[in-house]
Fold:
Amino acid sequence: MTRPARVLLVCPGLDHAMRGFESFARECFEALRGETAFELELIKGSGPPGPGERAVPTLRRDRPLAAALGRASGRPPFLFEHLAFAISLQPVLLARRPDIVYFSEWHTGRALALLRSVTGRHYRLVLCNGTMAVEGFEHLDHVQELTPAALEVVLERGADPARHSVLPLGFDIDRSNTPVSPDERPALRRRLGLPPDRPIVLSVAALNDHHKRLRYLIEEVAALAEPRPFLVLAGQPEEETPAIRSLAQERLGPENHTIRTVPRSEVDDLYRASDVFVLASLGEGLPRALIEAMSHGLPCLTHAYGVPEFALGEHGRTADLTETGALARLLSGTLRDGMAPDGADARHRYVYERFSWDVLRPRYAELFTRVAFSGNDAAP
Structure:
């Protein structure tokens, strides 16, 4: 090896979509851009340019044309964004000649693989597998699995062990936990438009029911005895969002909940203002919001399965969330137990030692360097 590896980090939704993929792309770029083992450049689908980053034109998912194509085809609008983005990347790939294209969006990777076979270029495609894909990896050079459980599943289905490795998502986590003081919390809540003197249950997730199961979450909070906690749902709107809003209005009333979409820069304040975090989905890759909530010391309530066990360790509070009443019981017990400061510190320390960029940065450098210059991972 005579030069650093050239890595293009690409994210079609960055700067206009508010999801975990976009949050990770931004944090990954900021955390790794100063590394000397490789050269990192960020290519996104919108937003202003900056040092080491630029946007290329794409058919954004939130534009009328993407919505019209989605209605006509029965496919989600983001699919057309991802395909258009892969096409728009071609001049950048020709000019930059990267060793690695690193991405999280499955359909972008499929399109890039097809275009690579047509153009004859030799960059390597590395998927950060937050999509929970379990097969169909033949077009990829390497797959970053986010948990040991995910690696076990894909290997059981016949994946090539040489092309898959476990590397968790990195997170921007402070070395020490700095909770909001009791004197500061009422003012923070008033600024956020939240009740200053009630327990607050937070869920940061896409505003849908099919995956994030917000209907279940709303019904479980509604089943709690009065006075209920105040429910905050924060996330990216989707097709199911109007129905979620209607249900929350009917079952909780406007005085007991809020549903909002906020920039990533404001999400930390929601964590700091809340008492409990809930993720009601039954399956995830490695949910960013779960680690972020733990990094702020929040007790985290989830469905019981392998990913939360890896993400939260002994600090997680889990139950079978397919059962009616299970989350309500878990919430009641958690709110009754309260938030001991030593518990918050232990939760923060656990995720810092496993998922912070301080800890994981060298492992990302090793992955990129190994895949860029090894002949063992190349796809046919």
In short: The longest helix spans residues 357-373. The domain at 185-355 is CATH 3.40.50.2000 (Rossmann fold). Confidence is low (pLDDT under 50) at residues 376-380. The longest strand covers residues 5-11.
